[in-house]
Amino acid sequence: MLIASDKFKGSATSQAIAQALARGLSSTRAGIATAAVADGGDGSLEVCESLGFRRVHHEVEGPDGAPVRAAFAVDDAGGRAFIEVAQACGLALLDPSALGSPGYDAARASSFGLGQLIWAALDQGAVRVIVGLGGSATSDAGVGAARALGARFLDADGLELEVPQAGMERISRVDLSGLDPRIAATEFVLAADVTNPLNGPEGAVRVYGPQKGLRQEQLEAHDALLRHCSELVESELADTGWAGAGHGLRTGAIAGRPGAGAAGGLGFFGMAILRAGYRSGVDLLMEMGDLRHQMARADVVITGEGRIDSQTMTGKAAAGVARMARELGKPVVAVCGRNDLEEHQVRQLGFERVFAMTEVEPDVSRCITEPFPILERIGAGIGQYLLERQDRLT
After folding, report:
1. Domain termination site, one of 251, 281, 311
2. Which segments does the entry list as coiled coil (predicted)?
């Protein structure tokens, strides 16, 4: 059997979960293979390290301007790098109490640190850079990241602005001539499962802004600001044809693409400035790990994530594993901390059965702080279930 679980955020890594389940399954005497999976967000560096990437640390500017010791993964032999946006400008880097405080302005949270990480990855010799979008604290459409890479944002007097902190409403012109020339020679891929455009009712600000600290009364104006900035960037691309990206470009063509609104508009930044492709995060990481080949040799697949709910159905790692297993005709069992789905939704995802930790241990805090004994018991339960399943089928 194959255990391919995502991490349980704030509780256990993918590898540790697999090991605990395997201990519980030991009585089955079945051969057990394990693989780490993620959806392009938190946990993706762990997947990369399991594939032979090395972790590199680099100090960058966090979303609030404070220094952050961020990490990314490098594959020296393949010339690849994997960057998690959340490492440089993630919501988790901020004090939760600050988000709702009068002194914090989410509209000025900056993605500058992401640009610094991209620069560092290029310094490491990467010629293919994957940027995992997710968990960002920013809604700046990547102006901070672009500025770190050499773009200039100018006011009406031609003076350079330190945006977004200086106020994106002051931007009158964008100059991309100073962008790091290595960008044009590098392949960039955005990894995410968000399909929102940059602007409008389903855009970055309206859908995700409130969870990043934007107040309700800020949403309309900030959405308009991102539209203004994206139009200036697209206009500059159309005028200069930066790296062959823009000649004949129609205004709004990039901002309206599915995924442009991912990570507070960093999807737009990647598509426009980095000329990046856009891939499902879980599909890309499963492909990198050759999971299909491993799964083809398994009789049963066990996957999981911290919480199985409506978000699971929108492209999370466990759903991606289940989809691949279904294509290969393999039965799938899921493990989670908590299951919020109805039985018909579980079936719709392709799970034959869901084992939730809260069904074994009702104390949620203990499930989070002491997960491994509970996961071992679940592993034993899965083993018993599979034996009974085999008896029914014979």
Report:
1. 281
2. none
